[in-house]
Amino acid sequence: MKNTTSSSSKIKTAHDKLSELVLYANKHMKDQWNAKTVVIKKILNITSHCPIYKDALFFIENDIDNEVWLDVVKRCLVELNKINIIQKLEGLYTTVKSEIFPLLLQNKDSIDKNIYGKSIALIRTLGAIYMLHGYYKEAIDLFKMVFDIFSRDFTTLTCILKICIITNDLCLLTKILNELNRTIQNYKLPTKNYLIIYKVYSIYVECHGISAKENCQKLLDSISKVEAEFNSKGPLSIMMYDIQVPLLLCKIYLKMLDNEDDGITDNYLKLRAKISDKLLPSILYYYYKNSATNNVPMDFDINGKNDNFVSAVAVTSFLFEESLLYSRMLQDSGRIKECNIKCLQLVTSALRVGCQYRFLSIMNTIGMSDFLVNNNPRIYDLIYLSSNTFDNQDTSQIENKPPSPNKNISEDSIYDSSYDYLSASDDSFEKFECGNLFNSTLNVKFHRNLCRCQRCKNFSSNKLMEQERLFSKWLLEQKKNNSSSIVESSVNYSESWCEMTNLYNKEWWKTVGHTSESTVYGIASKNSSYLFCGAIIKAITTSSGQFDSQIVKSLLKKVRLQISVFCSEFHNMKISCSLICKKYSLRSYMVIPNSCYASPLNIMNGIELVLDEIISAEVNSITKELSKNDAAIVKAFNKTVNINKQAVIDYIIAFNNLRLSPTGDLNYLNLRKYCNGKLLVMLKEKVKEIFDIFTSNLRFMDVTNKKLILSSLLRIYDIAEMDEWDIAWIVTECTGIATRSLISSTGSFNYYFSSRKEFKSHVTNYFPTNSTVVQLFMDDDNVLWLMKLHRNIKPLVIPLKKLHANYFNTIHQKFLDVHDKLTKESGQVSGRVFWSVRYSLEDSYKYICKKIQSEVLGSMAFLLLPYTELPFSSCFMSFVGALEKANYPTSVAISIASAIPFLTLSDFQNILKDITTIYPMNSQIIQSLSSLFKSLSSKITRDLKNAGYLPSKFLRNLASSQMIECPKEIFTTLILDNELSLYPWEMVSFFNYRPMIARMPSIMNYALLLKNNVINKLNTDNSYYIINPKGDLKDTEDWMLNLLKNMKWEGIKGQWPQPEIVKEFTSKKDLLVYIGHGNGKQVFRIALKEQKFRSAAILMGCSSVKLGPSSNGYSHLDMVENYFISSGPGILGCTMLVTDGEINKFFECIFKAFKNNNKDGNDKNKKTITYYMVQARESVRLRYLTAGTVVFYGIPTLLL
């Protein structure tokens, strides 16, 4: 009796203690959550005062006034920084771990069910809050407590499994599955949910095992069976949606391993998009629909039994992690725009859940894009603000308020939250150190490095946040243009990150109960490791010339440790590591011919005089013609051109040395003589290894790896004796305008050539015999290359010139910026001023274009001309044969022979001189070829006339409009990187002889267009027009309607048509004409999205066919690209700003041709659109500023 009473007393004591602890803990947790909710509502209230910019758009919007932007952003970040719920709950976490959990574990069979249930709910709610804020170590600790007490709790099980995926801990996942299997067997659970969970995650473990590649098809079959089971059950439950996520992750990785997969159906980016854009949001909707009015977790009641709250918060955390990974994959594949949109959505979500770690992670992801950072200063400032603001827990310092009184808290306390800051009155530090606390532009006070506060003495408990801070610091340091600092910062970042990761992993393994060495297992979390590995690979690939081979080896060793486990996220990074190693082993062979380098400039004595030539004519002509009343415009003009002149001077001085040939190394020709025997065998083996990586991973390869392959093989393909079609295929797939990875993830077309055989087949079977494709592209060392393709001739890939960084942006884009500014300003004054400015700009632009042509192309400009085939001319073939005998490739030999009518003897000798640095020959051969040129040039010219390739009265000074009057037409199709596309290549002097030029955005577009498009001539009677939709170009509207008299065209004027109506016309009409501002993309959006834009298009607006910006040379989808995805035959428009009067004259010539052709009705008299473009160039006053901006993208042989 006495023992029974004692036992009852003990149970009562445990019950009462647990009840008191749980009651207190629930109240404390609710109070902290509500406090956080108040701050979040304040943040949302701040953002709601920016109605023009929805949600988070104002964070990176350039158009907002700087002071307004800074005020709003600072207020948001200050409020976000006030959310310290994790610090407030640290005591509660300790209490749960040291008191509540032991009590539950010891008394779980005898404790009251009500308090038992509340205890479970408390622990897993706390775990969910930690998980939401990125504290996965603490979260898994809490969820494991629940799992150890009550392993049948399904909500806790799903949370643990999500953390296993986030942290990539397959050991923990295996352990949990074993425990789950025992639970199923012991308790004989009545529901099938546990069995399905066990089956799906067991497949996940197998898919990420060592034997996955051997069992690839078997595992794919297992996944298909599970998916079939889902589909057979009708509407899916929330659990069925949930477990589709690991299944899709498995499928992604297996498809990457399966070489038989074509990479188009269920592309890995599509599958990732399905997870983050469809599945996880659908699951969240299920949890929110009956529990919250707003899409924020703060509205949930966290008291009592709360499966929905815990599940929703866990899914929200998983959605953040998965969406960030997906965003980074979008970025890697070149889809910068989509990445930006996804990140902005996540910024809004991070504010709504009130999480600093999530916010900084997103900022770091955006910051990885060079294009976004370089073109949007807001992003750099935002990364700086967020990184440093979240490093400062005393928000009064950021708000520029007096600091609160110092708290008397021991520095030895592990949870000490006091932070000491330097001030001018602090005698313990030197006065100058105070300056390190302030940024003069942003006026925010931050910690200085190595200050003595408690926070800087101890690592934060959230080491993932510390890793994000380390990354943001590295990211900000990359703005320095000092190559040595980039190497140093990357090495320091790597060492600090790895130190932090090892600490984290030791704590993690201790928490989850693993026994192996933590350093063997290098993953802190998928996201953190993905960012770290991406940063190191980016640093090495973008600054390869500065990194020592030993440093590269050291950094890659650390990267390989992180990616050693089998995860689909790191598939491309494994390829990158391998390619970087192979590239560095070949680096000493990667030289280019001396002719590709610039001659040294005498900077001190000549450069200003050279630049004065560019601007003197325009300044003088304007100042002479303008009266005293126009003095202000003269002054503004002079100021603009002088600023531009000084910028060009500074840039050329800074970068000239980068373009000079290296000294002391083996040059191009000596190196090729040196490579023989065993060395050549070894080189070929390396090349084969790289080529094998290319062929086996083409379907999923990202931008970085394509760039690595291209830069590795371009310089050595000729030494290694690669087949010309192999290197041409690689160039096609790996250069900037290769859009395979972009389009294959958004459409059903196979937008890549899966093999050399397929690529060669497209060229030899579908390319027109009278058209030559010329592709110009830049490699990662700023060398301009040319590739030339023809169906009957082997490909030619050759380097043209070593340029300095951003050459075209500096020389060409700077002029365009001045042009746009002056044209707009002068247009607001008098007509006389306007035309004075325009004529002067025309002279300048002509001069600059010729300077660029001379510097970039030089004697090699003839390579831009199309091939001429003349097999029945003995003189032509003899000359080609002599060049081949001198070791010139057939492609070069025919190119020279085709250009003979347009070359003088001096031109020919200059070509031989420069090309000798690529194809060596002695002086005797050069003399012999020069003699042959003298004797055969006139005869070859005669044969070309007789064959119809030249006008019967050909002279070298004939105008281009006379050169097009040949019986036989031959065409050039230019394919250009986005940065090169603004330059008026059609105005290159050699094209005066072969002026029939079209463009295409990529070879894939061109090949598929030729294969799929059956249109070879247009019925211009079957046309539709959209004229002056904005209503502010009345003169242009009247001019066009007058031209259209007696023509059977349909259309609309003075208003915007409905996109649905336009979609109908774009699929039925032969021609669509848009005359207005820009390219009218907004009205074509449905036709483009549904790929139903089948009409030829004329877009008569400023920059209507300007290609969009790019990242590292890799273009993203724009109007022109989207148009050709829809299989349209051709699009005519302008690449830059044009004036309405001049451009109207150009297009009037085109429209009159339509009229004449319709009257004639004879198809034999129809000409190509490029023919009429050449004629139209003669009708305008400004040949470069107007005619040179009009380009045609499409089939060059398209008849009108």
Automatic annotation (TrEMBL):
It holds the Pfam family Separin_C. GO terms for biological process: meiotic chromosome separation; proteolysis. The keyword ATP-binding does not apply. GO terms for molecular function: cysteine-type endopeptidase activity. InterPro entries: Peptidase_C50, SEPARIN_core_dom, TPR_rpt. One of its GO terms (cellular component) is mitotic spindle. Residues 1020-1113 form the Peptidase C50 domain. This is separase. It comes from Strongyloides ratti (Parasitic roundworm).
